[in-house]
Design a protein that fits this description.
The complex is a heterodimer of chains A (240) and B (239).
Chain A (H helix, E strand, L loop, with lengths): L5 H13 L21 E8 L5 E12 L3 H5 L6 E8 L8 E8 L2 E8 L7 E2 L7 E5 L9 E3 L2 E9 L6 H9 L21 E10 L10 H4 L12 E10 L2
Antiparallel strand pairs in A: 1-2, 2-10, 3-4, 3-11, 4-5, 5-7, 8-9, 9-10
Helix pairs in contact in A: 1-3
Chain B lengths: L2 H24 L1 H7 L36 E7 L4 H5 L3 H8 L17 H19 L18 H10 L3 E3 L23 H10 L39
Classes of the chains: A mainly beta (240), B mainly alpha (239).
């Protein structure tokens, strides 16, 4: 980048550090969702204990401090949590698994094709419904039904990151050293919690996976990565 | 069969139908069949007003669960850290959450440049900060192709326009394990170190790894630590 832009560059990054939460996985990622009950913290997707299944986990409303803040945290009945699965490779969701709280339970719908794709959703009440009582602490309530395992409740934040140091790194205030060595670095999320929803789904309910995007985009050679769904999580708030 | 017998049978059937019809009109049992889950009264096999039995499950208050309405997107996430690390400004961060995943490559209302252009600019800004600290001309310290062979434009295109976790139903799950790449995300995957390496590691993965007088920008120095992940739902009890 040109020298004339360097002053502006440092200024910009310096401003960024004034925001306490500059980076985490997606925790507090943008002003309009920061601190709201729709704020997504993280998304995980991995092979289940049964290798024919995939587990999807979304964490939201993080970070929550231990104690009262975690005990008082609640899923919002107006916020729909949606796992989106593209199984054709066009990054448009072909299937969704939806989760929404009613009372003391979380209701999961699907996986099923959404009535509409994109920014607006309705709840797939036509799809298979799997309810689970929201766990409150140490006890774990899991419902196994409709070929799914489902869970909802507060958990320790699985995300780890020396987040405070990152803010200093990004601002340039610890340049040129950068991050700390492992003995000195500190995991900001070590003692913090999140609200979480987890669903384990047989792959047979997700359709055939398309060509991996890195292969399709010729970043990797043919066979360089196995066929893979494209998956993202969204939170959507009731508007009427 | 003789005609009069046929007539008698016909009349008998008609009478029985009339009887059944009359019976239907008066019998409470049939009201059960006619009850609906939206008539505002507790009837049929419902256990609450319009809920329970064949209807939606009841809430504690004894009314039907309401799942109606339109829900509008507020937040979205595919790969970890993308919006927070690369969007740069608050306005871009908010806009990123409000554009469908498949539309991110298209210039949006209110944008003067695409998300990809913004991301690439941010990536270069991070390099400029360290160029300045190292007393190097920022023009001489730019992003270098990463370990996957992606230059700045390709890398930021993948991040901006294709922001989803790739999840392979077959084979090993990993964000990146040195061999397999982008087949999912495990709870213990060090996505920060992987992301930092793709941002600052260059072709070798060690370009700015803290050795040979370079800044440490490829690892934040923390790992999964004391976390232990068990059976479903795999997450630990809260702190």
């Amino acid at each position: 980048m040109k020298r004339t832009k360097i002053i502006a560059a440092i200024g910009m990054v310096g401003i960024a550090v004034s925001s306490v939460f500059l980076l985490s996985a997606d925790h507090v990622d943008a002003p309009q969702v920061e601190g709201t009950k729709s704020d997504i913290a993280d998304l995980y997707a991995f092979e289940g204990d049964n290798p024919n299944n995939t587990v999807f986990i979304a964490t939201i409303q993080g970070p929550l401090a231990s104690g009262q803040q975690t005990a008082n945290a609640q899923f919002d009945e107006d916020v729909l949590i949606e796992f989106n699965i593209d199984n054709t490779g066009d990054f448009v969701e072909d299937l969704v698994i939806q989760a929404i709280r009613r009372g003391d339970s979380m209701y999961f719908f699907g996986p099923a094709a959404p009535a509409e794709t994109g920014l607006e959703s309705t709840v797939n009440t036509f799809a298979a419904r799997t309810a689970v009582k929201i766990s409150t602490g140490e006890e774990v309530e899991v419902t196994t039904a409709n070929s799914l395992n489902v869970y909802a409740g507060p958990r320790r934040d699985p995300f780890y990151f020396d987040f405070n140091r990152f803010n200093l790194v990004a601002s340039g205030s610890v340049a040129p050293e950068g991050f700390l060595p492992s003995g000195e670095a500190s995991d900001f999320f070590e003692d913090l919690n999140v609200l979480s929803v987890a669903v384990e789904v047989p792959n047979s309910m997700l359709g055939t996976a398309p060509t991996h995007v890195a292969v399709a985009a010729e970043i990797l050679p043919p066979g360089g990565a196995p066929n893979a769904y494209n998956v993202w999580v969204s939170t959507k708030r009731k508007s009427n | 069969m003789k005609i009069y017998k046929i007539t008698a049978v016909f009349v008998a059937i008609c009478i029985s139908l009339l009887f059944v019809q009359c019976n239907d009109d008066d019998d409470n049992a049939n009201i059960i069949e006619q009850s609906t889950c939206s008539d505002g009264i507790l009837n049929g096999e419902e256990t609450g007003i319009d809920c329970g039995g064949p209807c939606e499950a009841c809430e504690d208050t004894g009314v039907a669960l309401d799942f109606t309405g339109t829900f509008i997107q507020e937040d979205v996430m595919g790969r970890p850290g993308v919006n927070t690390v690369f969007s740069g400004s608050d306005a871009v961060k908010d806009l990123f959450n409000k554009v469908p995943t498949a539309m991110r490559g298209t210039l949006q209302d209110g944008q003067t440049e695409t998300f990809q252009a913004t991301f690439q600019n941010t990536l270069e800004l991070y390099h400029d900060v360290y160029a300045a600290a190292l007393m190097i001309d920022p023009e001489d310290l730019d992003y270098e192709e990463n370990i996957l062979g992606m230059n700045a434009a390709t890398f930021t295109t993948v991040l901006a326009n294709f922001d989803a976790l790739q999840v392979a139903p077959e084979g090993t799950t990993t964000y990146y394990d040195g061999t397999n790449i982008l087949t999912g995300r495990n709870l213990n995957d060090d996505v920060i170190d992987i992301s930092l390496t793709l941002m600052f590691g260059g072709m070798s993965g060690t370009r700015f790894d803290g050795n040979n007088g370079t800044p440490q920008l490829t690892s934040d120095g923390v790992g999964v630590g004391t976390r232990v992940f068990g059976a479903f739902p795999h997450l630990e009890i809260p702190n």
